[in-house]
Known about the structure:
24% strand, five-stranded parallel beta sheet, 354 residues, 30% helix
Amino acid sequence: MRLGVLVNPIAGMGGRVGLKGTDGKVAEARQRGAEPRAPERARRMFTRLAERDTEIDLLVAGEPMGAAEVRGAGFEPEIVFEPGTNTAETTAADTAAAVDAFVAAGVDLVVFVGGDGTAADVADALAETEIPLLGVPAGVKVYSSVFAVSPEAAADIVVEFDRTEQREVMDIDEDDYRAGEVSPELRAIASVPVADGLQSAKQRGGGTVDALAEGIAGDVDPETTYVLGPGSTLGAIKSALGFEGSPLGVDVWRDGQVLATDASEAEILDALGEDNTIIVSPIGGQGFIFGRGNPQLSPAVIRNASVEVVASRSKLDDLRVLRVDTDDPELDADLRGWRQVRVGRFETRMLRVV
């Protein structure tokens, strides 16, 4: 197989510092102390690919679009495109040019490390070809169904797939997203490997959560600090606690006091107390409780708190499992297993985290 690989080096940088994305916000993300996320995700994928000991010719874009990560895993890639002189970040034009170079070199599959915006750019560049694409999730939102569920799963799909299917590439306006409005837009239909390790497109769960929210509010411990994730289910819980939280951000609350709204990772860590509980709801259709849409809930935050999962019954009806993808494989392993999911004032269901 001839595999074309590119990394969007700034994908996901805005997540942990509370920007909900990086489009047009790279400088602000760096001012807030953001660190690149995509290179480490790429390293994990290439390391797994090397472990599979398969014969693959790797064609890559030069730095900072993936060459170092490929070499770090022990491969000797062929560099077919060099981005511009800016070594800190790249543009959509660089992505398109790299994909054009892959097409000219006759690759069988294009793997990219990035988010929905990168997925749309790659799909556009491949639109007149029959070459499939596969995403390694590194963005904040990751609404599209062209992504593997983890970097390791992406490597396994590369090695194992034997057919493709058409899947949707979705994206949203990040400025609207920061303002609390979510309107996913279909950007492309792309050919993608068929595999169990692909994530589904994001769906919204229905059904009332009023009783669930009232149950949570009635059970709060005044000594516990609650870290409340994003989403409509958590929005109902925040209302039941007596405040209007950020609909797509993370808020921190203790004993009737809002300690932080739309908080970054650092702000959450500063607000934590001796006893802390994270309350999250899985993404409908995908099942992720960590790693999609809430990177502020970083490994450092999660390791300092217990975790409570809540969801509407209708949302769980569409899920077989829950998923985690925290950027920390050891933490992911610790979080796996059967977990109670609260679905009402008193009722719970058991669902397995994978």
